[in-house]
Amino acid sequence: MPEPLSNREVLEVDILIVGGGPAGMSAALRLAQLQREKGGEPLAIAVLEKARDVGAHMLSGAVLDPSALRLLVPDFVEKGAPLASEVHQDHVYFLTRSSKLKFPITPPPLRNHGHYIISLNRFVKWLGGLVESEGVDIFTGFPAVELLYEGDRIAGVRTGDRGVGKHGEHKSTFEPGVDIRAKVTILTDGARGSLTKAAVRRLALDAGRSPQLYAIGIKELWEIRADRMPAGLNRIPLEHPMNQRLVLSSALASVLAMGLASTAAAADAPAKEKCYGVAKAGQNDCANLSGSHTCAGQAKVDKGVDEWVYLKAGTCKDMKGLSEADAKAKTKKS
Q1: CATH of the domain at 75
Q2: Residue 279 sits in which domain range?
Q3: 97-130: string of b/e by CB count within 10 Å (b at 16+)?
Q4: Does any domain span residue 92?
Q5: Domain boundary residue among 168, 184, 203?
Q6: Taking the mean position of all CA atoms in its chain, how far away is CA 214?
Q7: Which residues neighbour 68 within 8 Å (Cβ) at sequence distance 6 or greater?
Q8: What is the rounded distance in angstroms from the CA atom of residue 169 to the CA atom of residue 178?
Q9: φ and ψ at 117, to 5 degrees?
Q10: The model scores a pTM over 0.90
């Protein structure tokens, strides 16, 4: 049973925004702007975010259409919006099991010229700074676990209890969650947020309406060398390994100015001329190895030919006839 209300701390605000992602932060910022423009009694606006820090749960990159951002923050560039790179190229590929076919033209819905490649983590952190500068309170590290109701009206949320054991027992550090009550509650907890789903079920918000459609998304962060993919390139592969009934659409956006890829690239750039490695390769493979294994270290590509290749700053020198130890020694001396 929930803890009685009298035993819980209660916080009263005018507007509560649940979820500190791009939508939640944008809503908070716009409300603060309207408050400043219209005047009147100041509103107590709060954003509740479950992550420990603003943006901590924003892991993916994105291609940002700046039109809405321009309306919200007209001088976003001057205010230091973390824009990694403007999109300069869109490449669309149809994938098969063993090859790819590049589209001769880019369909209009897939054209991203004038858009920006961003890290959502840094973008949301930047938005959070703007929100706080407007006097909005951001409470991080407090997951909302339950909606509070007054009849059929959502009256706020309850945050999760702290200090609860894995079997539900209260530890010595137990603290009951806080009831945050609001005149207006805005749910921005995601397309399939748990509180939004609960509200839809209880209030029958989907009655008589078309069902929601969803797609499965998988996020990956790849750390690559700076020369593998130019900044501002957006690649969109289609089809394989799906079929005609299951459509695969993804995007590979080059974010070389920020995030993991940029950190690695920036760290490697000054030492590039000192990057050595030894690789075992077949005949006529020097050019390929120099392009893909510049920093190979002791990586080996065995094609049945006992030949060692010396790699330095993208070049390749034959060390045929040398043992592995001698090839390594010569590499170090060079």
Answers
A1: 3.50.50.60
A2: 275-333
A3: eeeeeeeeebeeebebeebbbbbbbbbbbbbbeb
A4: no
A5: 203
A6: 19
A7: 26
A8: 19
A9: -90, 130
A10: no
Q: Are residues 284 and 156 in the same domain?
A: no
Strand, helix or coil for residue 70? helix
Are both 32 and 123 inside the same structural domain?
yes
Side-by-side strand order, sheet with 61-64: 61-64, 116-119, 83-86
| 24 close to 123: Cβ distance less than 8 angstroms | no
* pLDDT tens for the chain, residues 1 to 334: 444 445 789 999 999 999 999 999 999 999 999 999 998 889 999 999 999 999 998 888 888 999 999 999 999 999 999 998 888 888 888 878 888 888 888 888 888 888 998 989 999 999 999 999 999 999 999 999 999 999 999 999 999 998 888 888 989 988 899 999 999 999 999 888 999 999 999 999 999 999 888 877 777 777 777 777 777 777 777 765 655 555 555 555 554 433 333 322 223 333 333 333 455 444 334 434 433 333 333 334 433 334 455 554 444 555 556 666 676 666 655 5
Token pair of 225, please?
């060398």
